[in-house]
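Same chain as my last thread, 367 residues:
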Amino acid sequence: MFKIFLFITALMFLAATASARVIYIDLGNSEEAISITQEDYGYVLFGQHRNTNEIFAITFDKNLDLLKINSIGERFLDRLNVVEKTPDNRFFLSGNKLLLDQAKIAILELNSYFVVLNYFILPVSGADQWVESALLTDDGYVLAGGHRSIGGNWYDALLIKCDNSGKIIWSKKFGGSSDEWFSKIIDGGDGYLCVGSTESYTKGMADFLVTFFSRTGKLIWWKTAGGEKWDRAISATMVNDGFLILGLSNSFTDYNSPLLLKTDKSGKIIWQKVLDLKTEFFPKGLIEFQENLYCVYGNIWNGENRFDVIFIFLDQNGDLVFKKVIEEKNDQNINSSIIISKNEIIGTGSSDNISKDVFLIFLELKE
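reply #2:
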């Protein structure tokens, strides 16, 4: 049993009109939407039931009409963090599975009909490991996350390269006297840019951790950035002359705000900017929307009683071009967004409605 609710709103921001279409799917319990992919027939929303750990995939046509709710099963992953689409139309899922009270990295591969093709636990030594981001390559995939050694008190950032069969080619750890982990990996041209958090190499409580590895796993350079409190990088994108890196910070405002960092290709910091909207703003991702136009999406406090979904658009200097806040009756938590055309974005997340619904947001921008 499910319910679908549809709301259409339109607001004017600066020189742009943005219309938002929001679709809620009530699955009856507590669910979390993880990721959205675009298909020839429409879209697939991947998520997980939090009370059973069952993974589901909801298909929609191009008009966002629901086609089918597909159950993947509950025994595979205790925490689903990653969904990627392979060039041959398979789905690559990863996260962690608890075995003997230890978190282990699990890989789940599905065909286009959501039938399980492969499932295995990566043979990584240590007490706990997890994956927060994955990059698919021609010869396999690279996983980024965290690792704790048996008997250790701290987490190290973890990077693992596997071939297409799941065999580990190499693995690298980055750590110190406290906790480090990676939140995002992207292709950096001649290597891998990995960003996350460091509590070992910081002038505050935690700083951005920005690292660059060669394709053979050699650490080429690393940088930290932040202030005197808590700062954590969560996303990044490559630009013509370097990288834009997005994170969460409370070092420069009295509340949580997005912090944006620009570096050149060798890691030199060009500028650092706080995206201060005068209220709590938890960023969830950074995507390049158009040439020299970037979108930060996340959840913003409305100043009274709830978090709303927000999309803000920035130029190449990190300056605000326009924004769109989608106001609903209850807390909204967006997790993932993708570009589907030159002026359209689709995102997914979870809402505190009567039950914890999942939702799709279709955003169209017009000049």
